[in-house]
Amino acid sequence: MSRSRLQPTASLFAEPEALKPLAERMRPRNLDEIVGQRRLVAPDRALRRALEAGRLHSMVLWGPPGSGKTTLALLVADYADAEFKAISAVLSGLPEVRKALAEAEANFAQGRRTVLFVDEVHRFNKAQQDAFLPHIERGVILFVGATTENPSFELNSALLSRCRVHVLEAVSADDIVAALGRALADTERGLGAQQLRVDDASLRLIAQAADGDVRRALTLLGIAAELADGGCIDQATLEQVLADRTRRFDKQGEQFYDQISALHKSVRSSDPDAAVYWLARMLDGGCDPLYLARRMTRIAVEDVGLAEPRAWRMALDAWDTYERLGSPEGELGLAQLAIWLAMAPKSNAAYLAWNQARAAVRETGTLDVPMHLRNAPTKLMKGLGYGQGYQYDHDAEGGIALAQQCLPDVLDGTVFYEPVERGLEIQLREKLTAQREARRKARGGKP
Q1: Residues 160, 77, 177, 14, CA torsion sign
Q2: Which helix (H) or strand (E) holds 262?
Q3: Nearest-CA neighbor of 37 among 176, 146, 163?
Q4: What is the DSSP letter of 399?
Q5: 3-state helix, strand, coil in the chain (%, to 5)
Q6: CATH code for the part of the protein at 254-343
Q7: Which helix (DSSP H) or strand (DSSP E) does residue 114 occupy?
Q8: For the domain 10-167, what is the CATH superfamily, name and number?
Q9: In CATH terms, are 10-167 and 254-343 the same topology?
Q10: What pLDDT digit, counting tens, does each position of 72-124 carry?
Q11: Residue 142: HSE in the Cβ half-sphere, 13 Å Cα cutoff
Q12: How far, in whole angstroms, is CA 140 from its chain's centroid?
């Protein structure tokens, strides 16, 4: 194309600027104005080279809010010299999808392509996602889907096979500060005409409060500009604007599962600092504290286990404490539990023994109980040999009938539980090793 790749088509950005929020007015008009995402749009990166060369492809843009997904979709349409059509999976159904595709077909018949931008594409069901497939294959549309959720889980494989997935990252605080500075200096679209006074420390506070979201940062700056007394965005103004800021957290999405995984694995790795950090992150994001109490009780059973049996009781006590005190006081009990679990010795020996025993049950089926272990409440059952030969352990020397077989014949000698050499299980291992050797000798060398 002869026109500059840095100049967008006027139709995409021709709406009245004064009516738009600051974040919309400052939307990047070319790749050089995008802050962050250097991995995708730096001059030497494959996506940028493809855009500038006109080698466009359908794609899914996966990233957190405010990372530039919509902006990149607009620029794809600009660089492709194509019509831009946007629909939202939150607000649209199959009729709206069909209408958009019909318009794209009409454009295609006239020799013009359409970039169909589908925001929150993960909210479409399989049938709705399938509707795009033949139009992508024929080249009627350049499909650009935006999602905050992992496409591997939320999009069907047929759609993913026809698109490239580009991962956008949360924008760094430094890059957000640069975007805020640009908005303050821009007299055409930004706040430059207002000649606002704001220091670098205040801009960084706004950037940090935005938590990787450029749109949110610009919105906060716009609000601060409206509240500024005498054109100065001071500490008092920022306290009003940033009073109720929250971090990114989706109680039903990937961030939730990533963070609970981080908490669990930090405890397992005996890192109390990381454990209490991830607990604080999840509570700050609005996670149900009782869910965290339940998960940490599971950690006590699964990862601490018999190396420190008190962990189980402490987890239940912390759970009970939170139910009695609520937030914020009860959260301290959960924090103490997270720290203590991280510091406790770890053993998954009981967990492994349980899984191996379950697997043995599945593999070997309904094995008979050895006759000497069976209950014999009737004369008939006694006559059939039920309970015959049973040795009452309390009457045996040392309190254990060492020669007595307790597993079914097929599994006799199988070892499920192997204590580790940590915590209380050091003592359990010593005792069990000696006991197993004594059993072997008592049974004539048989394990």
Answers
A1: negative
A2: helix 254-268
A3: 176
A4: G
A5: 55, 5, 35
A6: 1.20.272.10
A7: strand 114-119
A8: P-loop containing nucleotide triphosphate hydrolases (3.40.50.300)
A9: no
A10: 999 999 888 889 999 998 888 888 888 999 999 999 999 888 999 999 999 89
A11: 23
A12: 35
